[in-house]
Structure formats: C-alpha cells, structure tokens
Amino acid sequence: MKRRSFLEIGGLSILGLGMNDYLRYQAQAKAAGDDMRDTSVIFIWLPGGPPHMETYDMKPNAPVEYRGEFNPIKTNVPGIDVCELLPMHAKIADKFNLIRSIHHDFADHGGGHKRLMTGRIPATPTNTINDAPAVSCIVKKMLEKSGDEMPVCVTEVDASRAAIDTFAMGPAYLGPSTTPFVVGGDPSLPDFKVQNIGVKSEMESRLDDRLAMLKGVDQFRRDVDKTGIMNAMDGFNEQAINMLMSEKVRNAFDISKEPKELRDRYGWSAYGQRALLGRRLIEAGVRFVTMVWEKPYSDKPVPKYGAYNWDSHAVNAHIFKDSQWRIPVYDQALSALIEDIYNRGLDRKVLIVSTGEFGRTPKINSQRGTQTGVMQPGRDHWPKAMSVLVSGGGMQTGQVIGATNSKGEHPVERIMTPNDLWASVYRHLGINRNYVLRDLQNRPVPILPFGRPIPELLPTIS
Q: Does the structural domain 34-198+257-305+329-457 have CATH classification 1.20.1690?
C-alpha cells in the first residue's frame, strides 16, 4: 500500500468512524441468562445524593431541625404522600412504587457510587475507579449479540462529565469492550448532536469506496496475522459501520422527530429531553439506558444558592432554595417519562429506576455558603437511609415498600441493600444473577454476590 492510501483510510475518522476506537475493544458477549426477554431498563442517576426528606420520605411530625420547610401532599393513591414540590408525581402515584428502606455503609461519593453502581462492597471507600464492573457493563456483556445495530447500553450525561470513571461506571476486570456508548451533551439545546452517529448522504459514496479499500487492507493483514487479532477485529468494524450507516440508529438518536407538544411536556431541560431521548432509544432496541441528571439547565448558570448536582451540603447550597429550583424540573421530567411509558404500552417491557448514591442527613445543619457568603441550611451525606422510585416492569404499582424511623434516620421495616434492587433489575432483564464471571486472576465471580429480588417489583401475571 502506498502512503496516500493509508492516509485515505485514516480519513474514515473524518466521516465519523471515530466510533471504531470505541468499538475496537469489544468482544462478542456471552448471552447467558434465565432467558433473553424483550425487556429494558431506564436507570436515572442523581449524583450527589437526593434528600429523601425533601422528596419521597417526609417526616412532618419530626422535630423542626429534622423535618425541613416543605410539607407533604396527598397523591392519587390513599396513604402515599410526597413532597409539595412534586405535584406531577402526586397525580400518577398509581404508576410507581417508592422504596424507603434501602441503605448501605459508604458515606463518601466515591464509595457510594461504587456501592450503588456495582452491587458490591468496594475495596476502597473513596474515588470512583471501579474494582468491580458496573451493572451496565455486566448487562452489555451478557446481552450483546453479534449483528446488533443499536448499542445494548447507552449512557446520557453532561458533555463535561462523559469520562467513564466519573460516576463509577467503569468495567473493571471485564475490560473496555463492555463500556456503554456514551452520549455527552444536552438534548434540549439547539446545537445538540450525537457524535459518531450517521454520515451525510453526499458522503456515503466516498465512504463506500473507503470501506472497500479498508476491506482490502484488512484481508491483507489477516493473511499475515497469526494471532487471530484481525478476526476479532471484524466484529468491531462491523458494528461500527452498522451503527454509522443504519437509518434506524440515526432515527433513534434524532430527538427532533418528537412532536413539540411532547417535548414541552417533558420540559426543555437537560433532565426532560434526556428522558425523552432515553425513551426513543429503548423503543429502538437499547436494553439499558443510564441518564445522569445533575445540572438541570446546561445553558443557564447555577444560582448562587444552588449546587451543580444533588450534593446539598450547606457549604454548597441552601437546600430548600436549591430544592425549589431543582425538584420541579425533576418532577416534570420523571412524571412525563412514566406517563409516556404507560401511554405507549411499554410499562411491562420497561423498568424505570431513579436513585442517587445515598440520602441526606435527617438533621439539618447550617454553614456559611461558599457562593452566598451567608449562613444557610443544608444536609450532609447519609447512606443509612435513602429513597428509590421504581416504575413499570409489569409490577403492581402504587405501593410504598419499607419504612424508616420517625426521624428518617434508618430503616425499620423491610431493611434492604442496593443488591436487592439490582437482583430485581437482573431478573427483569432475564440475566441470571448467579452466573459466574472471571476476574483478572481467572477467579470465579458471581454477577451479584448477594441480594434477592424484591417481591413487590416482580411482574404480575398479564
């Protein structure tokens, strides 16, 4: 081959084949599980730790230094109350369940992220570099099949937070072949674009020519390759090209195809449009969508009284003012997603899970705010109690599962860990949680070391 030919082949990256770099490490996954049902998961990640006592587990009768400024409101399910900042939730409480008794022991963000994202006790209580694979990586390994047009797992995140280790979503010993396809950016912005998806029509003929050239080079390299590496690369190239050329893939990621009325219902925020894009991806065949909801609006500054994400320490934010700014956006986006899933008849197929890495301290403390310069109330990290919302999955909804004590300090009924939640998720996806993986020392490692599906989350007989 002449040098010019190699340069032309390298030009594939200009057309969008940079995703080859992402896919080059992928290996064919073992599709081992109870069964391969057509089910999927939308996992909403709320980094920083949402306050359970300002959302789903209010304690109006607790002492004032615990209960906070907001009041509970009734929902359309008798006996279920939520925060007054969640009026749209209140109208659809019959379509979700609240788990109030999950807890763990890791109060640092790093440890909390790893504990939640992996379903394992992390080796270290800090930093977000995994020593065990994230659940999304396990899902990709178990469910990916050769010839898939759509990626099995997609993660939606702020453009500046797209590194796989930011939220402990790394693959650890499973290797980079199992990492999700990451979509960085805010779909509510007019210039939003998914990188490495699709090519312009006028470029397709040039791409065909270069793909033919690439095949010729690959054949030459296969002829001289004695290690089998090139044969393994075939699958990577095939999926990269399939995704690049697939009209189905381009359409799935094109959120502009949604009617304006529906986009308005979700809300023109990073939360809302990310949720709508996630629903489109699930309909197109993605099995596990993670959407990270941190800053509600990418094109607006965080108020001085607010925090970038849900980390509402007093030094970071005035928790009640921050809640008034953030939670209504969350309310609109999540309630729209739940309604949309049910309206489209996807409520048996799709399981929605919304959680952070922990709750917040039941007792309010005050400190001087870094941005405001004045004393303000906040809550610190609190893994001993947290609330999780689940919806869909074919389960009976309109339930509260578990309870904390009168001050929201710790569970007193149906005490559970994140592993019970993940056992339910794996069951929904048809993945055998006892299936054995191999770590870097070739030691057998079960997908989930402990935990059992939560009975209330099991699908009812249709």
A: no
CB distance 440 to 173 below 8 Å: yes
pLDDT in tens, 94-127: 999 999 999 999 999 999 999 999 999 999 999 9
Other CB atoms within 10 A of residue 324 CB? 17
Which residue ranges make up each domain of the chain? 1-30+202-245, 34-198+257-305+329-457
Q: Enumerate residues 6+ apart whose C-beta is below 8 A from 163.
A: none
Torsion of CA 354, 256, 198, 334, to 10 degrees: 0
When computed from its CA atoms, the radius of gyration of the chain, rounded to whole angstroms, is 23
Our CA angle for 250, 256, 257, nearest 5°, is: 75
Largest CA distance in the chain: 79
Q: Model pTM?
A: 0.86
Question: What are the tens digits of pLDDT across the range 371-388?
Answer: 999 999 999 999 999 999
- Check if the beta carbon of residue 125 is closer than 8 Å to that of residue 113: no
Indicate the pairing of strand 40-45 with strand 365-368: unpaired
Long-range (24+ apart) CB contacts under 8 A made by 188-195 are 188/268, 188/269, 188/270, 188/272, 188/273, 188/297, 188/298, 189/298, 189/299, 192/255, 192/273, 194/253, 195/16, 195/18, 195/19
Tell me the three state secondary structure of residue 224: helix
